[in-house]
């Protein structure tokens, strides 16, 4: 629509005025918000924007490759950092959900600071360093930045940066809602896999393994998750479902029987939800035949999993993620 085009043109002008001849850096998560924000900034300043994507080793099956393919086609300067050893090493022996988040957040900042060094060099001492963020209007409101609103919670995009990161923020999506961001993304010609990707948490599969995060457990969950997503897509339900986490109960074992043999494996939980904004959510009534296909395939194809369950809790009282 013409209004979305106007927004892009307006933002491009504003960003040119803000950044001038300076350089900017953007952390791409793989999600639509950071991708659209970066695409707008690239329009404004070209290759003076550097995009950084951190592979922390907890992405889904084939996801980093997909992101790399999609993003390399769109962005001139893309820095893919493989930091999986660093992240998984730091998570060794850790089961507590908040502890996991703290460690992952800390490693993100370390990785990003190293990228910042590479991009800005010693320029940080003189000229301003610009950081592009995909902050949306609801993020601004939630963090108390909107006119006449009070602080509900501090969103990680807005209030969560450490004080000693000396950046000036560039936030071209601050007035938009998610559906508008998707319109802008389509308008800019970004690939559908990018524009329509379901939300995925920054800590990735790390908060979908109940228990310690190990490479073996990640492999098991990746296989189950890939089957669930493949079948959801095949059923044509991708866009009706807000998110579809698959959770591995790694510290729980369950008895099963396969052929003549007793098995002692792990359960997974399917957590399909519908939502408008993730603040509240309802459990999705997936068709029984789809659930059956997913269950049969997971227990046949993933040796360590012998039981598939469905989470039928709304939010509240449950959250979307299990951790
Ligand atoms: P919950 O589980 O709180 O999740 O209902 C609401 C939305 O936020 C996502 N989520 C996260 N995103 N870092 C993120 O970037 C996190 O630590 C995190 N925890 C939850 C979740 O996937 C859902 O979209």
UniProtKB/TrEMBL annotation:
What EC number(s) does its UniProt record assign? 6.3.5.2
Q: Which GO terms describe its cellular component?
A: cytosol
ATP-binding among the record's keywords? yes
Q: Where is the GMPS ATP-PPase domain?
A: 2-197
Q: Which residues are noted in the entry as ATP-binding?
A: 29-35
Q: Name one GO molecular function term.
A: GMP synthase activity
- Pathway in which this enzyme or protein is active: Purine metabolism; GMP biosynthesis; GMP from XMP (L-Gln route): step 1/1
Per UniProt, which keywords does this protein have? ATP-binding, Glutamine amidotransferase, GMP biosynthesis, Ligase, Nucleotide-binding, Purine biosynthesis
Q: Which reactions are catalysed by this chain?
A: XMP + L-glutamine + ATP + H2O = GMP + L-glutamate + AMP + diphosphate + 2 H(+)
* Spans through the membrane: none
Quaternary structure, per UniProt, is:
Homodimer.
**Protein purpose:** Catalyzes the synthesis of GMP from XMP.
Q: What is this protein called?
A: GMP synthase [glutamine-hydrolyzing]
Q: Which species is this record about?
A: Nocardioides agariphilus
Shown stretch of the complete protein = 200 to 522 of 522
